[in-house]
Specification:
Elements lengths: L2 E6 L6 H9 L2 E3 L2 H8 L6 H18 L4 E3 L3 H7 L6 E9 L12 E11 L1
Parallel strand pairs: 1-2, 1-3, 3-4
Antiparallel strand pairs: 4-5
Helix pairs in contact: 2-3
């Protein structure tokens, strides 16, 4: 049985990202809710707390065992030194588009554990 995970990014995962998650026996759940949450501006500590609480609430609702995605710096700062929570994995993207290009493109290399959400 596939385990539920969350995708946290303003953008949909690439085919390679979904494939890596699937090969780990996992499937993305509640993507509409997490994408909307990922688009929330984090301008103050209160914003950060709301986003983290929202992510934890969604994870609890769907029984998520991990969170994958692209995390804003304040979120990475909060989860980097936490353990015994929900493991979080950031996308390591390579072959980035040169500066000034009209549309960003990249290739997914692998997910890297960056901490835990608690």
């Amino acid at each position: 049985m596939m385990k539920n995970v969350l995708w946290f990014s303003r953008h949909a995962p690439t085919t390679d990202q979904v494939s890596e998650i699937s090969m780990a026996g996992q499937k993305i759940a509640a993507m509409d809710a997490t994408s909307a949450l990922a688009a929330t501006p984090i301008n103050h500590d209160d914003d950060l707390v709301l986003v983290l609480r929202g992510l934890l609430a969604i994870a609890a609702t769907v029984g998520a065992v991990s969170v994958y995605g692209v995390f804003a710096t304040p979120i990475m700062g909060e989860i980097a030194n936490t353990d015994k929570g929900i493991p979080c994995y950031a996308a390591w993207n390579v072959s980035r588009t040169p500066d000034g290009a009209s549309r960003p493109t990249f290739s997914h290399r692998v997910f890297v554990k960056i901490g835990e959400l608690k």
